[in-house]
Structure formats: C-alpha cells, structure tokens
Hints:
alpha/beta; Rossmann fold; N-(1-d-carboxylethyl)-l-norvaline Dehydrogenase, domain 2; eight-stranded mixed β-sheet; binds nicotinamide-adenine-dinucleotide; EC 1.1.1.22; oxidoreductase; UDP-Glc/GDP-Man_DH_N
Amino acid sequence: MxxxxxxxxxxxxxxxxxxxxxxxxxxxxxKLSEKIELLQQGEVPIYEPGLKELIQKNTEAGRLxxxxxxxxxxxxxxxIILAVGTPSLANGEADLTYILGAAQEIxxxxxxxxxxxxxxxxxxxxxxxxxxxxxxxSVHPVAVASVxxxxxxxxxxxxxxxxxxxxxxxxxxxxxxxxxxxxxxxTDQILFTDVRSAEMIKYASNAFLATKISFINxxxxxxxxxxxxxxxxxxxxxxxxxxxxSFLKAGIGYGGSCFxxxxxxxxxxxGHVDYEFKLLKSVVEVNRxxxxxxxxxxxxxxxxxxxxxxxxxxxxxxxxxxxxxxSPAFEIIASLLHCGASVKAYDPIATPNFRKLLDHSKVEYCxxxxxxAQNADALCVLTEWSEFRAVSPAMIQAWxxxxxxxxGRNMYSEEELANTELxxxxxxxxxxxxxxxxxxxxxxx
Length: 445
Ligand SMILES: NC(=O)c1ccc[n+]([C@@H]2O[C@H](COP(=O)([O-])OP(=O)(O)OC[C@H]3O[C@@H](n4cnc5c(N)ncnc54)[C@H](O)[C@@H]3O)[C@@H](O)[C@H]2O)c1
Ligand SMILES: O=c1ccn([C@@H]2O[C@H](COP(=O)(O)OP(=O)(O)O[C@H]3O[C@H](CO)[C@@H](O)[C@H](O)[C@H]3O)[C@@H](O)[C@H]2O)c(=O)[nH]1
C-alpha cells in the first residue's frame, strides 16, 4: 500500500517506519526541515529503542523516504495519515491548529480521492471538522477515519508491531476495508466503530489509566500513614483479573506528553456538553500534588532545604525515552530551587532536552550518576532507569555527603537497604533508618 504520514514525531515516525517494515511504501512529511534532514541522513531525532535500525533497513530497501514537501508527498498515497501534535491550550483544551492546518494543506494539494486516517488524539467531533474542511476546500472526495494510536514512548516500536487492539472509526465502507487490510498483519483485534466513539475511546483509555495511577498513589499515601506496604497491596489487588496488575505502580505521579494533556482535554470535552467530570478532576489534582511529596519528605529529613545540595537522578518522565514534556522532574527541581537548594542532575538520555526547559545557574547537569550524587545532602530518584537500579544503596551512601535517599519510584528493596546507614523514604512503603524499618505508627481507634 502507498502511505503518506504527516508529522514525524513519536507517533508519525514510528507508525510510518513500522508500516514500511510491513512492506508498504511510506513517505513521511514534516515541516521542520532540520528533522527531515536528520532522517534523510539516517539519524533519528528522538530516542526510541529499535527505531534507528528499522529506519536504516527500510530506507535502504527503498520503501521509506522523508520530505518537507507535503503537497508533492500526498499525491503518492491512497491513505494519508495525520499524526501531528494536539498540545494543550492554556485552558486545557486540545489545540487543533496543527491538525486543521495540516488538513487544510492536504485539501488544497490533493488531485484525486484519498482516505484520511487521523492518528492524532483529537476531541470528539474533530474528524467531522476535518471532513467539512475537505468538502469546502477540495473537489476531490475523501473518506475520513479516526484510528487513534495507543503506543507508549520507550516501547513504541514493540507496541506498534504488537497492538492490543486497533480501533477504526469511520462511516466509509471503502476506508474500513483499506484500513483493515493495512492493519491485518499486526492483529486480528480490530474494532470498527462510528467516528465519535473512536475519538472517545482514546481519551477514555488514557483517563482510565491515569485514574489507576492516581488511585494507587492515594492508596500509597494512606499506606505511609497506616504502616502498610503499597507494593504488596498492589500485588494483592492485581491478581484479581478484574483489576489487573498493570498501572498500579505508586510513584511521583504520571507525566509525559499524553496523560496530563489528555485528562485536561477530556475534562474540557465534558464541560462543553455541560458535564462536570468530577472523578477525572480529582485524578488530575491528586497527580499534581503527588510530586510534591518528594519535597515534603526532603523537608522532613533535612528541615530547611536552603543552601543544601540535592542530587536528582532521572529527568525524563519515564525510562527509555528522551521526552521531558510534563516530566514531574521539572516541577520538583523548580521547587527545590524555590526552597533555596542547588541541584546536581543526571539522566542517561534526556539531559539535552531538559536543559532546554531549565537552564539555571543553580542546576548543574552531570555526566554520570556518581558525579550527581557525590557530596550531595540527599539523592532523589525520579525516573526508574535500569542504570540506577544497578547501583547498590551501599554505593549511593558512599557517594553522598549525608546518607539521605528519596526513592520516588520504589526502586530499592528492604534487603538491599538492610546493610546501609541510609535514611530512606520511598512511596507508600515504610521508611528505613540505618538499615532498620521505622516503627509502625500507632493507630488510634
Ligand atoms: N507521543 C506519544 O506517545 C503518543 C501516543 C499516542 C498518541 N499520541 C498523539 O499523537 C499526536 C502526535 O503526538 P507526537 O508525540 O508524535 O507529536 P510530536 O510533537 O512529537 O510530533 C508532531 C510533529 O508534527 C509536525 N507537524 C505539525 N504540523 C505539521 C504540518 N502541517 N505538516 C507536517 N508536519 C507537521 C511537527 O513539526 C512535529 O514534528 C498527538 O495528538 C498525541 O496526543 C501521542
Ligand atoms: O503504574 C504506573 C504506570 C505509569 N506511571 C507513569 O505514567 C506516565 C505515563 O506512562 P506510560 O503510559 O507508560 O507512557 P506514555 O508513553 O505516556 O503512554 C501513554 O500515553 C500514550 C499517549 O496517548 C498512549 O498511547 C499510551 O497507551 C499510554 O500508556 C509516566 O510518567 C509513568 O511514570 C506510573 O506512575 N505508574
């Protein structure tokens, strides 16, 4: 099949590359010439495991190419995939400038019938707007389909090649058949819906996963007060197939380019039809507060943070990505600076992107985990990179000036801490002091 993908971000690039690997002829378009030049040279503008190898393989096979020329590229394809960004506006609504802008450019360029397949996450009703734009601007018939994307950053290639399901929302029988044909090699689990339901499935899925995370984070906060261990609680809950074990890891709250923006957008979508989504508003509020527990725990240990040197391990919003959009590390470091602390930060991959967000005289970006931890008054672990898991708590203690470890991702076990003198605070688990668990709090009822 001949495909043109508009937007070479995490979704457009990975989808385009994976579709080419299935034998389709794919042209990827972006308006950022520096991105396209990198891709034409075989370089990858984002960090995503396995992507570079697939780009090289499929470019060499002549199935994959990159261009900034949208109007030329759309002639090539029968299916045009929209994968441009839909970031948040100040009020939380999705900004449709890029998606409607791209649709307009396509409408003004096409010279024949096309299938427009929207992979971007868009509010209910957006694909109808896109269809109307085509009707107004072009004489050529288009069939519009909402095919939302569910890949995760850090495992985007694997997720794309092994999707749990493909959702296809379209009113067009021709589009339905072609899109089914395109996805059949990936899965048999293809759900056909109307357009609005497909758009809603994407937001509902992200909102539900975000709800699971805020739920377990609140359980963790209660566990800390009653002396229970949230990792055991989550394990015990997860064996129940109705609950499931995934997305029950307590931590510093969700970040990234999707959950924060998509939860806000769904609250707005509901608001536009006079529905107050109370549950989701709480999910967002819990998430916003959860990251500040790191600061509260530091203050409990160190009292005043002013003048203290705090090491931070992990700047990306999750491991295996260089994406720092809405990373909890940003607000945590900003709070540390606000409290008068200085910060020594390290991330295996994401430092260059994070530095663009926060270039501050009191933040020193280090080139190793040891350099960041050396002589600090406390270490905060904010991203669970395997590189950090490989460092023993005894080693961490040796590097630090004062033996304080705040583990925002529950990386280290009681056994590993037993032989150290660390003061250790994690999330929803008992604190440890000198290798010994703190006493279980007395319950007064
Ligand atoms: N990042 C994810 O993990 C993920 C997963 C599922 C769904 N989504 C959704 O997919 C969409 C894309 O997300 P992303 O993270 O890949 O975005 P991104 O910001 O990484 O990339 C978008 C790209 O589109 C390009 N672009 C914008 N307008 C263009 C135009 N008119 N012509 C050509 N290129 C244009 C931009 O230059 C940019 O490179 C969003 O709606 C997002 O919510 C993202
Ligand atoms: O048990 C968990 C699972 C995740 N997280 C956090 O949640 C955030 C998001 O993680 P994840 O979902 O793995 O990454 P994303 O790449 O943001 O993927 C989400 O957002 C994408 C964009 O919409 C969707 O396509 C994916 O299905 C959806 O998982 C990260 O900050 C994680 O640290 C937790 O705190 N606890």
